[in-house]
Amino acid sequence: MKKYAIVGTGGRAIFFYKALVTEFKATASLVAFCDTNATRMNYANSRLESFGHEAIPTYHASDFDRMVRETKPDEVIVTTIDRTHNEYIVRALELGCNVITEKPMTIDAPRCCQILDAVDRTGGRVRVTFNYRYAPHNTKIYELLSSGAIGQVNSVHFEWMLNTSHGADYFRRWHRDKRNSGGLLVHKSTHHFDLVNFWLQSRPETVVAMGDLRFYGKENAEKRGETKFYSRAHGSENARQDPFALHLDQNEQLKAMYLDAEMEDGYHRDQSVFGDGISIEDTMGVMVRYRSGAVLTYSLTAYAPREGFRVCFNGSKGRLEVEVVEQSYVNSGGEQAMEGALESRLILLRPMFGKPVEIQVPHGPGGHGGGDPQLLNDLFGDAAEDQLGRAASHIDGAMSILTGIAANISMQKGRMVKVDDVLKV
Q1: CA dist list (Å): 195 to 26, 87, 188, 336, 396
Q2: Which residue of 87, 128, 214, 408 could cross-link 283, Cys pair, CB 3.0 to 4.6 Å?
Q3: Low-confidence ranges of the chain (pLDDT < 50)
Q4: Taking Cα atoms as reference points, which of 397, 420, 410 lies closest to residue 107?
Q5: Is the peptide bond before 243 cis (omega within 30 degrees of 0)?
Q6: 104 preceded by cis ω (within 30°)?
Q7: Distance between CA 229 and CA 239 in Å, rounded?
Q8: Mutual orientation of helices 85-94 and 64-71 as an angle, nearest 10°?
Q9: Containing H/E element for 58?
Q10: What residues are paired with 127 via a beta bridge?
């Protein structure tokens, strides 16, 4: 039985600790929580008790080393803010633990170098939790492309839409500061760039990108004629009429994890999406050439009226078209099955000289189109060998963020960027 410790006890951590103490009790043991905020750790323990599990030891972030020495986890699960992932990944490896980290693995090239070096020095293992690889429709795309259904893939058009609930949420939280998250082309698009790497079984070679803050932020709201502003929703009269406002006191989990905990660290989970201080983009376009020769055109919109994606592959023998509509979701530490849950999906195979064929894919239970349960079983259960190679390593984590990192450089410098010039992996 493997022992696990979790560092970072916000909304995403619940995805892991609930599974560990309910579904995988026979193969896994949760031994410790670590965080900068004691209130949040106490809430995590209350959730464990509600699942019928006893409370576990808690450690302040400054006592991370002591936690590892005293509780002796085999693996450390990292679910902190993105800019600190590298610190805990590297130190866990140095202390003899393997690591499971939330995406993105980290946010820039220097931090990525630290992780790659630590893996080489220690011989430890880092897994990145790319649950979208495990979604049945994304697995089917991989199977169709790898079988040669459309021949050699020459181009990909990929459009991802975040709606005014899920998309807006990145502009309320710590993600809105690019120093914390690397921007959405790193924090969110790491999923999407990883999927393209996985689907094509290739790596990005050159990247060019454009992007701006066009919808969120105070200046954009002023241009649209808005006159009523606020810094955060809690206690604000103006926020009562704002459909973008998040009211922490109306959600039990959000209140306990953030509103009741802010006295310790001053973090406000409910900042106005039309306030000042937002340094990430909400409208982005990226072009990528891969080592295989394929070219990707990618767009990300964070204020769309729908949630989901469209992706089309053009090959030497035909075309594959995919459209997926997902349910709206705000990360509140509540029902994880809602995250990425499907409303509809359509996969059409169009042979070069044949009639289009609709590809049927069985629906799986759980979040991210059924990918979450499969990922969790792969991490914590008695998983069979995955012939599709969906388990993502630190190399996969690096290649996915390097597309976004190169895109950030391209937007800043106004030029094409070679990925190997950013970091050679």
Answers
A1: 32, 26, 12, 21, 10
A2: 214
A3: none
A4: 397
A5: no
A6: yes
A7: 8
A8: 40
A9: strand 58-60
A10: 100, 393
* φ/ψ bin of 51: left (φ > 0), alpha (ψ from -120 to 50), beta (otherwise): alpha
Identity of the amino acid at 193: F
Token couple for 373: 């349960």
Are the beta carbons of 19 and 92 closer than 8 angstroms?
A: no
Token pair belonging to 349: 């195979």
- Decide: 132 and 401 in contact? Cβ < 8 Å: no
In angstroms, rounded to a whole number, what is the distance separating the alpha carbons of residues 244 and 229? 12
d(C-alpha 320, C-alpha 318), whole Å: 7
Partners of residue 101 on adjacent β-strands: 78, 128
CA distance 234 to 143: 48
Bridge partners for 357 per DSSP: 349
Task: Write down the pTM of the prediction.
Answer: 0.95
Residue 419 is which amino acid?
A: V
Domain 2-128 = CATH 3.40.50.720:
yes
Tokens of 416: 């094409």
DSSP one-letter code for 218: H
Spatial separation of the C-alpha atoms in residues 299 and 81, rounded to whole Å: 25
Q: Which CATH code is given to the segment(s) 132-216+278-371+392-421?
A: 3.30.360.10
Strand spans (E) along 339-420:
342-351, 357-358, 392-393, 417-418
Pairing mode, strands 295-304 and 153-163? parallel
Q: What is the C-alpha to C-alpha distance for residues 158 and 197, in angstroms, rounded to an integer? A: 13
What's the rounded Cα separation, in Å, for the pair 180 and 196?
25
> Where in the chain are all domains bearing CATH 3.30.360.10?
132-216+278-371+392-421
Distance CA 153, CA 318 (A): 9
Q: How many other C-beta atoms lie within 10 A of the C-beta of residue 184?
A: 26
Extended beta strands in 130-214, E state = 153-163, 204-212
Which residue has tokens 């899920």? 166
3-state secondary structure of 399: helix
Q: Where in the chain is the domain with CATH 3.40.50.720?
A: 2-128
Structure letter (DSSP) for residue 79? -
